[in-house]
Amino acid sequence: MSDTSAGHSRRYEIRIQGHLPSRWTTWFDGMSLTAESDGTTVLEGPVLDQAALHGLLHKVRDIGLPLLSVTQLDTDTPRRLT
Description:
Elements: E1 10-17, E2 32-35, E3 40-47, H1 50-63, E4 67-73
Antiparallel strand pairs: 1-3, 1-4, 2-3
């Protein structure tokens, strides 16, 4: 069972402790990476389904940086400008 409607992916924001350089974008399936002034990195972008979300979370685990939050964004939420 898919958790997306009409084949559209949902947007997520994943916040982790520490800064990741932008070269990690490819490893995180093209999600945007934004280094915040509070020492966190925000990964934001579309996620096809729950399996893809779990795959991203496994990657966060594999790099060893603490996961702070995972937020599903409203489709009306404007994208961050990097």
